[in-house]
Amino acid sequence: MGLFMNKEAKVFLIRLSFVLLAAMLLTQASVYMNSVRMKQEMLEHDYELAGYLIGSYPQLAKELPAVFTSAKSNSELEAGKELLETAGYKSDLRRQMLPAVNSLYQKNAMIHSIISGVIIVFIFLITIKFMKSHFTKIDQYQQKVYQIMNGDIEIRLDDQEEGSLGRLASSINTMTSSLHTHIKKEKHNRLFLKETLTNVSHQLKTPLSAMVMYNEIMQDEPIDNEVIANFLRKSERELERMQTLITNLLKLAKLDAGIIQLHKMNCILNDVVKQAVESFETRVTHERKAIEITADETISYPCDKEWLLEAVSNLIKNAIEHTSAGSTIQVHLERTPLIVKISVRDDGEGIHPADLHYIFKPFYRSRFSQNKQGTGIGLSLAKTVVELHGGFIAVESLHGKGAVFHVNFPCLTKL
Question: What Rg do the C-alpha atoms of the chain give, in angstroms?
């Protein structure tokens, strides 16, 4: 049995066996003592009865020994019973009316109570000792597991003891060693990814910047052909779109790789939102749209300003891309006892119900959307940044009636 492989369990069972054996011996000793006392009580009763009869009927002195030592018949038993019952000496007579019997009962009850109490105390003590030792080790294992979960993967549990706890400790140590190996490998992969992203960034930006420059030079030249001029304008838009795509893609890759460390400090969210809105002033004016900012109060919150600005800007940009001329985008800030919320609401085409569960996936483009400008990265990037701040994004939308994105941050977040 697995139970007997546990050293502490074996010690507990051996101690319990000794206590039970001692209890059995004490019980047998008590039974023997009871029989001795009962014999003594019977002899004293017969002595008293014989003495009483000799004193009252001296002529029966020779016959009295036979009265107590000879075998009795059933008829004699019934005759004696009938005689004594007329005097109230019956089987239902209260124990207290028989001093000898009552005394014997009280002594036996006291002795058995003492024996039972001693046995219970010993069993209780060895059980408490076993449980204390057992659960102390479990608590120690639990604390070390929490330390491992918090990143202290150098900790090892004592797995030298036999039994289930030893096997559990050995399994945890094996898991920790495997985790340590995977973490080292992951750190190496992240370092490699960081270097690769840096190189890719430089490799992409250099030719792209050159193409942008060439395109600007060609636009500055006098061109009589409207087809070529139109081509250059389209080329400029696509190059800008490509720059945005590459920039956002690199940002998203760095966030997913975990090589970005947020530098949080208390920021006025009203200023962050205002700065995000101001970056789109030229565009919304050109597209004949409007952005309104509302807030019940000035709200301060610990965050990385640059990355939060990136997330809010992406939500506003998404609203601009999915609205038509004459639309108004509303950005609202509020604080409740539990959360700080930034809401971006638009009155555009809305989100189709089939898309709601996928809009935060990178590069997801809905087949129901009329918008062809987006890259499919902005919402995913915003969601990642918000979650790194300990918050979450929720979306509400009815297809054809606009959408509202809620950025929620818990008020308990600390620097």
Answer: 47
* 56, 74, 276 from 80: Cα distances, Å: 19, 10, 115
What is the per-residue pLDDT across 205-235, written as a single tens digit (0 to 9) for each?
777 777 878 778 877 777 777 778 788 777 8
Per-residue pLDDT tens digits for 233-257: 778 777 777 777 777 677 767 666 6
- 208 vs 350: which has the higher pLDDT: 350
Percent of the chain with pLDDT over 70: 85
